[in-house]
Amino acid sequence: MRPFPPLPTAASRDTRPLDAWPGIRGLPPRWASVLALTAACSLSGLATAPPALAAVNPCDSGHLVAYLAGTGEGSTGTSGGGTIVSLELGEDLRQDYVLLRNQDRNGGALGVNPASSTLWFTTQGNRVWSSKAEGTPYNWRDLSGPSYKGDIAFGKDRKGYFLAEENGATNVYVFPADRPADRRRINLNAAPGQDHDLDDPTGLAFDGRNQAWIITRHGELWTVRDTAATTWKAQYTSAAQPSTRKFEDLAFGRQNGQDALFVSGSDRGERFVARAGDRGNELDLQPTHHIAGDGSVTGLASCAFPDTWS
User: Fold this and answer.
1) For strand 83-89 and strand 93-101, is the pairing parallel, antiparallel, or unpaired?
2) Which site from 29, 172, 194, 239 is most exposed, i.e. has the minimal number of CB atoms within 10 Å?
3) ω into 287 cis (within 30 of 0)
4) 3-state DSSP call for residue 116?
């Protein structure tokens, strides 16, 4: 009898999702079926997903990745709630490919590991998964604790971060993608002397200098310059005009030859993504793109890390 091929180490899980393990594909059919069934049972939070329409590398330049919530679907039937899609940043922003489907119509947090183009996302608010585009999600139990994850993001240093709501406050956790159990908590506070309160942060992104950018539910933009500190001291920069929008996330991208910041969320129950320009104390949103279907764009991510943006 042939010896079983070795199972991958924890360090390989991010770049080799569950469906690519040699312990499944390299086994005789009968044993492979048993392991595949076991894997399916472990993904009880995610029903078997139909194949995506097509795939693009989530780290391709000129694209954003979005996590859609809601019940509506577009005319192509590709934008139902719980779907992770690619958005092309051309003259107009448009949905072009489905990267992954899952069963959480409430959406969740979303990030992309730039080292491996692997999607990281949540379901049920606190369960953390990773997967290649069109792959089989792997549940990271080390990160799937009781705290609600407001967002997941990766820095240019390739470390992973997530916002965690704990005991009425939001903190940040940093973790190596190959060893999530080694996560470390970072306190998140408004820097002394700020005229605003850092209230209800929902989205996190990093620029090329590894500065953190944070959006709040009401559209306030904050930045943290020293992300190596054990306590992040966030500084208020600007805010969107009061409106019916609810902001969920933000990400950098390159559109028409310019590095830009994009924000996402819902507007009167419709999904939206908008380019955000910093105009002094005002976060200018133009233009706003509504993604087909009712609900929200709860997660927005990319592998772009510009030093400056406009």
Assistant:
1) antiparallel
2) 29
3) yes
4) coil
Q: pLDDT by residue (tens digit) across 33-90?
A: 333 444 434 433 343 333 344 457 899 989 999 999 986 554 344 457 889 999 999 8
Q: How far is C-alpha 272 from the geometric centre of its chain's CA atoms?
A: 16
> Same domain, yes or no, for 244 and 283?
yes
pLDDT of residue 79: 59
CATH of the domain at 208: 2.120.10.100
Q: Do both 151 and 106 map to the same domain? A: yes
Which strand (E) or helix (H) includes residue 22? Answer: helix 22-25
| Closest to 188 (Cα-Cα) out of 175, 172, 200 | 172
Are 196 and 148 contained in the same domain? yes
Q: Does residue 306 lie within any of the structural domains?
A: no
Looking at the fold, whether 97 and 186 belong to one and the same domain comes out as yes
Please state, rounded to an integer, the average pLDDT across all residues of the chain. Answer: 81
Beta strand pairing call for 231-239 and 148-154: unpaired
Name residue 284's amino acid. Answer: D
Spatial CB neighbours of 236, under 8 Å, sequence gap ≥ 6: 190, 194, 195, 196, 198, 220, 221, 222
Contact 108, 100 (CB under 8 A): no
Helix (H, G, I), strand (E, B) or coil at 180: helix
Does some domain include residue 64? yes
pLDDT for 38: 41
Tokens of 196: 């605003």
Banded model confidence at residue 31, pLDDT cuts 50, 70, 90: very low
For the chain, how many structural domains are there in total?
2
293 and 190 belong to one structural domain: yes
Domain hosting 212: range is 46-301
The pTM assigned to this predicted structure is 0.82
Backbone angles phi, psi at 76, to 5 degrees: -90, -5
User: CA 260 → CA 250, 253, 256, 305, 306, distances in Å?
Assistant: 11, 6, 10, 10, 8
Structure-token match 């390989």, residue found = 12
Which contiguous run of DSSP H or E holds residue 30?
helix 29-42
